[in-house]
Fold these 3 entries.
Entry 1:
Amino acid sequence: MIIALGILAHNEASDIGNLIYDLRSQDLLSNDSLSIEIHVVANGCSDPTVSVSNEALSTGPFQRRNVRVFVHDVPQAGKSNAWNELIHNLASPKTDFIFLLDADIRIPEKMCLQVILDSLIRAKRALIAVDESVKDLSLERHKSIIERLIVAGSGTSHDTRIAIAGGLYCARFEALKRIWMPIGLPGEDGFLRAMILTSNFTEEENIDYLVFVEGARHIFESERRIRDVFRHNVRLTIGTAINVLLFKHFYKLRLGGNVSIADYVRQRNAADKNWINKLIADKMKQKKYFIIDPSYVLKRLKWFYFFPTFEKIRKAPIFLLGVIFDIALFIRANHLMRRGAGAGYW
């Protein structure tokens, strides 16, 4: 069985060595029944990401006979383009399962990747497996007031157990080969989730295609200042809005005939890397001020509704702050999109 690990990195020389160090102790690499391929896809890097990766992968368990390592220097920056390159050009077409990892995460438990892989293999209908995505800030004992607010406000507007965190996931390779990412997309994980769960918009969303793996986790670096959290979430909000626009566009295409969404995205990418922004411009011509659906500001309220009464009382102050935060995000994201923020903006 061929297992690929793809690490997508843009100017991550300061962090990627830590991730590779964590990979050294993963049980997955010492499993002699598997053939492991590790691909670092350094995209548009202006720092020593490539040389740091080569050095970190040159010793230890990465020299085992069942492990092969590759460091690819891709000129064009952008996670969606790097994803396309890895899946369609760089990884072996014989790959059975593939892990996608961001270069700045940490994987502290040595059994993590093997447990995720085993869970996906056992879940016969599942196409993708996700673990718990943990903020490093939440693990620290001593936090400032601002840091406590950031941690308390996390995870109150969506169910992370049925989402795909782009930092780490494992998928059946054949499922990803049927997908192309739009170039410049700022919300890759949400786009991937929709494509996986709807079989490229050929059926209704099926949550059975996704499995959440209990007991497995990765840690990502949290923003530490309110303004940085705000800017990050503005990006996510714009990414979500672009995804919604794309999904509606795809459904119209499907209604108009037997169109392959993957082929359509691949062809549009090749013809014009700015094609998503042209869709946004067409949306703006409808002369609606709110490009983002105003129902966005209700998402936290809908999530909060299902909390037990005691939890509602306990979390009410944080919830109210979160609603104010969402309204500010909504206004700012709409403003930026009207001024040209979209695919490739970030």
Entry 2:
Amino acid sequence: MSLLVLPADDPAAIAEAAGILRKGGLVAFPTETVYGLGANALDAEAVARIFAAKARPTFDPLIVHLADRSWLPRAVRETPEAAAVLAGRFWPGPLTLVLPKTSAVPDLVTAGLDTVGVRVPDHPAARALLEVADRPIAAPSANLFGCVSPTTAAHVVEQLGDRVDAVLDGGPCRVGVESTIVSFAAGSPVVLRPGGVAREELEQALGRAVGLVRERAPHDTALVAPGQLERHYATRTPLRLLSGRAETPGRGSRVGLLAFAEGPAQGFAAVEVLAPDGQPATAAANLFAALRRLDARGLDLLLAEPCSEEGLGSAIMDRLRRCAAGAV
């Protein structure tokens, strides 16, 4: 079957995509964060197709998407009080909670762990797809493993093509970076991956400090959540993270610049400004698309200016550090 690209705001298209999921197929769909590559989370054979399509190692667990909080018992065995507080405050939204899984969730989804990451997406098409399919949907980002995440349907088609049965086109993603992942495995909440909900917001909701895991895992290490590998979100062109504003490169250089805000940027072969308005939310929404545009220019090197790590800046810098890791 050839790839179907369907309008995400069409109920008939949603019904067609839901039918594909129920039959064990793969559907890429928009969320507020990035596009996800979805399969029936309770069907191990369907989930195996996700790993094959992305060339994703099975030691990297998947996030399970739910239509609303009432679906938690379909995937989760128990919900600590603090997790319930965060779900009540940030769902639907870019927050994933790592909680004890039920036996209905295949081990392939969780990389053999007894916990599963779950979230309720804040996008009308994603919620509609879940409701009509009437199944939890396992969905990592809809791209080849380790590459820049997709924030438009065109990004999905470019990388995955007919490895996917259908793509729901809902336009550009609003948030632009993946969900924040919070684990309760050690009792107290810990951020495993910075994302669309800032750690400061979590702490305000809970009235206490929330930990942050800063270590990055080697490429062949079993993970407890997605997005923890040392090198991830990678461009083909080597990227170097600067410590401050970029200086003018040498004459004739083939260097691209990823700038956080407007400013002097002479001598670069290409420049992308993430936040012309200076706002971190704008930078996050533009990050992956800007990286893709620079990467497509056939340059020798990309330089990325840093931003403050407050709020969404933490997620932006996390993605840039992982993109730059191992680059030469």
Entry 3:
Amino acid sequence: MLDVISLQYGTAFKKAFGDPIVFSAFVHDVLGIEFHTERVEQEHGFRPVYGQVDIKYDLFAEDTQRRIVVELQHLRENDSFDRFLYYHLISQAEQIQGADDYRFRRTVYTLVVLTRLPKESSLRFDIAFQNSDLQDLQGRALGVYEHRLVFVNARAWRTETPTPLRRWLELIEDSLDQQVDETKYPEAALQRVLRTLERTRISPEEAFRLKDEAMWEQVKQEALREGEAKGEAKGEAKGKAEGKAEGLREGVLDLVELLGLVLTTAQLTHLHTMSPEQLHALRQQLKQTRRWPA
């Protein structure tokens, strides 16, 4: 057995899949397209910022015809699907630099890797995708647009899952308990991933980031569970709407404490006037930015 770093962590995922050889093999096996790159960027962003939100892509690579984005999602957020659709659209729209030319120079493929099973059984898929092409009434694709948004879930692979994709999903899932039987993955690209993930090959700097990442995910999980539990308990005692708001408010305060933030009197006063919807949005923002919004 090989001691490895779990691929649920962005640091490990970006280290392994940021290898151009691994990245290109992964793209080929999952998307079914030929792609070769000499460079994979981590935390890539557009400068100047495009759109209303400054975004960073986990992994980003392109050649003369294709732009490939690969994202990792471990903790499922309520806005995950919308967020990655936004990432996908920005990668397309950013290419248009003037009103005199609306051509997309590169086809965009956004691939999102999920490592947790959703609560909704209907969303427990091995692979799901959105094609952008036009279709006629008979369902015939017209070949106008080739952009594609693809989600895969390492926890939901099936025996029917296409073998090239399934092998990657098996490896990702197998890594989650941080021990892998390397003999089960003889493929060259998968062996390359395992060599990268070996615990003995992790640098002190990477180990620090992994520890910070693990602690942050634990904070988010605890805050989410506590907020939900308190909301349910308060709801039974005080009424559904009031209880939900109180539970969410206490969940926000717990998260504020765990993050080491100090709120002013004005911020606390404002917090107690917020609706459940506003409290939920605030909690999501705190989890993402780790700071009180300006």
